[in-house]
Amino acid sequence: MNQLVRSKTDRMIGGVCGGIAHALRIDPVFVRLFFVLLAIGEGIGVLLYLVLWLVIPEESSTSTTMNIGDRARDMGDEFRQAATNPHPQTALYVGGALILLGGYFLLRAFNIPWLDWINQSTLLAFLMIAAGIVLLFRFKK
């Protein structure tokens, strides 16, 4: 296993998923999908990502003994950088997630009796199955 650091080259926001994927020697898509599913399911994915962003040092960081205030300041600077100059695929991920969530809320708002089976648990299960199928086809290539 490689050293766990945030990636400077394979990042969409803070490099956490790219760094974890590199350390585990797996495709970063799997790690990103894991965080998205955690964010949709229990909502803990976003909090976990932020904590890891704060705790895991950056790939070529000069100091590994920064205090938490300095790390938080650096995290804010990195977030501003990611917001002003986003990764090209960020819009694809965010757009897809917004369409899925919007569709879910729209169906729930209609109160159609035969759609009562759709809830957060079934939606999460369908998303996990769909993501697994997509990853299997992607891995098969």
* Backbone shape: globular
Radius of gyration: 18 Å
Helix content: 55-70%
Distance between the termini: 25 Å
What is the string of SSEs from the N terminus onward?
HHHHHH
The proportion of strand residues reads under 5%
User: Which residues sit in consecutive blocks of at least 5 with pLDDT less than 50?
Assistant: none
Number of strands: 0
The assembly state of the depicted protein chains is single chain
> What structural class should be given to the helix and strand makeup?
mainly alpha
Arithmetic mean pLDDT: 78
Number of helices: 6
Largest sheet: none
SSE blueprint:
Elements: H1 16-24, H2 28-41, H3 44-55, H4 68-84, H5 90-109, H6 120-140
Helix pairs in contact: 1-2, 2-3, 2-6
Q: Care to give the gist of this entry?
A:
This protein is mainly alpha-helical and 141 residues long.
Could you describe the 3D structure shown?
With 141 residues, this protein is an all-alpha fold. The protein is built from six helices and no strands. The chain starts with 15 loop residues before the first helix and ends with a helix. 12% of the residues are buried.
List keywords for this structure.
141 residues, mainly alpha, 6 helices
